[in-house]
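Reopening this one. Same input as before:
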Amino acid sequence: MARIALEHRRNWFVRVAEWGSRRKYGKVVEPGQVALHNRRVLVSTLLLEGSASKWNKLDPTLKALAVMVVSAEIGCSWCIDFGYWEFHHQGVDPVKLRDVPGWRDSDTYTDLERAVMNYAEAMTVTPPTVTDEQVERLRQDLTDEQLVELTAMVSLENYRSRTNAALGLTSQGFKEYCELRPVKGPVK
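Same output, byte for byte:
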């Protein structure tokens, strides 16, 4: 249960924010409802997210796995749920997304994907435990530009997941939309 009210006085700003969320995600996302309590935080977050959505040097699957590992490590069920939905719609293999919580025991991942998830996990623990060896392993396959983007994505997801978890946000059921299969023909 959210630790802060999700309801707001109805004014033009709230209506526009909710309309934008429904248009993009099909529902009003709870992190947005929380951020509506402080417009400057909301606007800053939207600007950051808008900018980050244009980062495109890192392979989408690597980005997705890094983000999902952070969400799982922090324990943000909202972020895991939304991340699955978001990355599923970007074409990331759903098996890879589903296996993230037990990634160390899964044979689904390549060596590079494992190195990315290990790095994301090491960045997320407090204090961070990133080693020179981890970075050197990543530099075997990633350019400096990609490594910087990976690091920034892990940091951004730490911000998201820690904020959402601290405010008590939990799954909004996004993943369930991915599991639905369209019915072809008339239903009998």
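So the earlier flakiness isn't reproducible anymore. For the record, Confidence is low (pLDDT under 50) at residues 180-188.
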